[in-house]
Write a structure and sequence with these properties.
two-stranded antiparallel ribbon
Length: 416
């Protein structure tokens, strides 16, 4: 995309062909081992990537889903960037296949939305109240496992918990996937896909809004069947400006529910952008601030442009967590920003930074296994659950490698 990027030095550890072969292997592996892939997203549990698969302490083969729509957002991002990369390479058949897979991946959001009310004995409604996953134990044999562990299995209908309902962190990753879909997937044959992306974005934001009996608006998630609180206002309020602006960026329609885009709300978000190291919890909240900033194209005070600010932030975060052994944390954000809002950065990162990441990815996929107190794991930085959530550096099992696939596509699109 940027001529300036093309002059970067090349890493010689592996060839581009070897990295492509890894991508193709991980994609096939995703279909065959890390999801129930049928080509029809209306079937329960399908087209929804699992987080990991493992053998538990009792020797049973386990497939595991958590934060399903968070992973789904990254899966959508993989497919949108794959579509664009294959078009760039002149592979029309592959491009058409990627478009159809993307179409099915977006339909999953409809299925999860319509299934949510039924968990609590209500009438299905396409209203932004959705499940994170809907994977039942009955799929265990199909998935080559003995045990399905999913939020749906554990929490569907449970009035004492909210962990299979919507939350703002589920939207963060989904916004990234939807934004890349709307930016990169064009042409008349993809009109329905873009329309669905806009529809999903609109519903997700509406699902975070609640008007009480007195007519006052709140940024919080309520279960429409039993009226119970799913995510409280204090959790969402601090980022309501960014959620409202993301809705506008993705749908083209202004959104100002409960004065979300007021000057005061914007100041709150700007303060968080510039001082979010004060958040002692970090991790997902850091991810949310950067993801939303990328989608709405609003930077904090550092850096000459959005890309430079993201690089500055991600390098600073890496210094806060040297144990993760990454040069920058969340390396996909700067590249996504360049694709969504093309600009000429003042301080572009060399292609070798991304080539080194791709080259060091193990061909068999990332993993961590403990046997007899001895830990065997992938080389850094592929020793964690995902580059998207690297603080999960003790999660046991085989990882889905969506991080490699997205990073590969982004690299090929940004560094021509």
């Amino acid at each position: 995309m940027l001529p300036l990027m093309a002059a970067a030095s090349l890493s010689l550890a592996q060839t581009p062909e070897e990295n492509l072969q890894k991508y193709l292997h991980f994609k096939e592996r995703l279909h065959s081992r890390f999801m129930f892939y049928t080509g029809d997203a209306s079937v329960q549990g399908t087209h929804l990537p699992m987080e990991l698969r493992k053998t538990d302490a009792s020797g049973k083969r386990v497939v595991y889903w958590a934060d399903g729509t968070w992973w789904q957002g990254h899966y959508v991002a993989v497919l949108a960037t794959e579509y664009r990369r294959l078009r760039q390479e002149g592979d029309s058949a592959g491009q058409a296949a990627a478009l159809e897979e993307l179409r099915q991946a977006l339909r999953v959001y409809d299925r999860l939305d319509l299934a949510a009310e039924s968990c609590w004995g209500g009438t299905p409604s396409l209203n932004g109240f959705y499940l994170r996953d809907d994977v039942p134990q009955s799929l265990a044999d199909t998935l080559g496992a003995e045990v399905v562990r999913s939020d749906y299995q554990r929490r569907c209908g449970d009035t004492l918990t909210t962990s299979n309902g919507p939350s703002q962190d589920q939207a963060w990753a989904t916004f990234l996937g939807l934004a890349l879909t709307l930016r990169l997937v064009d042409g008349a044959e993809a009109a329905d896909v873009r329309a669905k992306a806009e529809e999903v974005a609109q519903r997700m934001v509406k699902g975070m809004q609640y008007t009480d009996a007195k007519g006052k608006g709140h940024w919080q998630v309520m279960n429409p069947v039993n009226g119970l609180l799913v995510q409280k206002e204090g959790d969402i309020q601090w980022l309501k400006y960014a959620h409202a602006k993301a809705c506008e960026a993705l749908t083209g329609r202004p959104e100002d529910f409960a004065q979300a885009t007021s000057a005061a709300s914007r100041r709150t978000f700007k303060f968080i952008q510039n001082h979010f190291f004060v958040d002692k919890y970090g991790h997902f909240n850091w991810y949310g601030v950067l993801a939303l900033s990328t989608v709405i194209h609003e930077k904090g005070s550092q850096g000459e442009c959005m890309y430079d600010w993201l690089v500055d932030r991600t390098q600073s975060l890496a210094k806060k967590r040297p144990d993760l052994q990454q040069p920058i944390l969340f390396p996909h954000f700067p590249l996504i920003s360049l694709l969504l809002y093309p600009e000429q950065p003042a301080h572009p990162q060399p292609a070798s930074l991304y080539e080194d990441l791709l080259n060091t990815a193990p061909a068999e996929g990332g993993f961590r296994v403990t046997r007899d107190d001895a830990v065997s794991q992938s080389p850094a930085p592929w020793h964690t659950l995902s580059l998207f959530c690297p603080w999960h550096n003790a999660d046991e099992g085989e990882y889905n490698m969506l991080d490699y696939m997205l990073l590969y596509n982004l690299y090929r699109l940004v560094y021509p």
